[in-house]
Amino acid sequence: MKTTLLIMAAGIGSRFGGGIKQLAPVGPNGEIIMDYSIHDAIKAGFNKIVFIIRKDIEADFKEVIGDRIEAVCKKAGVEVAYAFQSLDKIPEGVEIPEGRTKPWGTGQAVLVAKEIVKEPFAVINADDYYGKEAFVKIHEFLVSETKSNAFCMAGFVLKNTLSDNGSVTRGVCQVGDDGYLTDVVETHDIEKTADGAQANGVKIDIESLVSMNMWGLSTEYMNMLETGFVEFFKTVPSNPMKAEYLLPIHIGGLLRENKVSVKVLKTADKWFGVTYKEDKDFVVESFKQLIADGVYSADLFSDL
After folding, report:
1. Is 152:140 a contact under the CB 8 Å cutoff?
2. 219, 119 in Cβ contact below 8 A?
3. Which value, in Å, is the radius of gyration of the alpha carbons in the chain?
């Protein structure tokens, strides 16, 4: 069965180099976080990779990442494709607000791949490390689920997603006894404390499950996303420069309307990301330890 991994990479800066956090080398041979996600997805059974980027960085992206990954995927029998996010990819009849320069967020990012993705798919951020377990669980869900409105989400334990170098924003999940998502509460300024974590001075349970924008979705979701994008533009006039069509907010709205179900797949893996410049050293050391523990080979793709 065909399954796709959709990687949201349009936020990568147009000037490639050490200053771009998604491209910071973290592995022993200069591997970036995205390499590990692609490796884990292929090992889990995904057989198509779609990069969502901007057209203006296409040449640089292919030179630094794409061509190398295409060669790896070709050997593994995995298809590679590109979709392009831009400000002007909007519903017919909608006008771009004067002065707006940035695209419309993660919901639009996924939607630009509608004509390319014709199979169940997972969505991830380019600059997040999710661990092997989540890819396996999401792939198993996608190949076994038959309902077009049944989705899943990787649920990370909050304590495994915090930074030592500053506060973070997380989507804290409310999960029913049946393991299904009831709501995601966007929680800002979560920081580590001596005995756990807090957000704006209020203690927060570090065992809570949080969303790190790793979803398992059906092809039908693209139609829902398209319909929601039209509705979204009715709200844009109130915040024309900054309004964003965001994946978790859209899915949360569908949940509240009882139009979809979202199974929360708990993972005990530790999430890594370079939220702060100071995080990079920790991430490098973490991958070094994963290699020492035999989780990865120093020659990352040698086992495909």
Report:
1. no
2. yes
3. 19
Strands (E), 150-251: 150-157, 168-175, 181-193, 196-199, 202-204, 209-217
C-alpha of 245 from chain center: 15
- Is the distance from CB of 42 to CB of 6 less than 8 angstroms? no
Q: Is 76 exposed, middle or buried (0-12, 13-18, 19+ CB in 10 A)?
A: middle
Q: Which two tokens stand for residue 267?
A: 């993972």
What is residue 245's three-state secondary structure? Answer: coil
Which residues share a beta bridge with 155? 211, 266
| 172 has pLDDT over 90 | yes
With residues binned 3-state (H G I as helix, E B as strand, rest as coil), the percentages for the chain, rounded to 5, are 35, 25, 40
Predicted pLDDT at 21: 66
What are the angstrom distances between the C-alpha of 74 and each of 38, 43, 70? 13, 14, 6
State yes or no: pLDDT of 243 exceeds 60: yes
Q: What is the DSSP letter of 56?
A: G
0.70 exceeded by the pTM?
Answer: yes
Per-residue burial over 230-260, b = 16 or more CB atoms within 10 Å of its CB, e = otherwise:
eebbeebeeeeeebbbbbbbbbbebbeeeeb
Q: Choose the CATH number for 4-303 among 3.40.50.12160, 3.20.20.140, 3.40.50.620, 3.90.550.10.
A: 3.90.550.10
Cα gap 22→268, rounded to integer Å = 24
Q: Give the amino acid at 225.
A: L
pLDDT, one tens digit per residue, over 66-83 is 999 999 999 999 999 999
Mean pLDDT for 199-209 is 95
The predicted pLDDT at position 94 comes to: 94
What average pLDDT score do residues 48-57 get? 94
Q: Give CA–CA dist 304/73, Å, rounded.
A: 9
* Token couple for 209: 């499950």
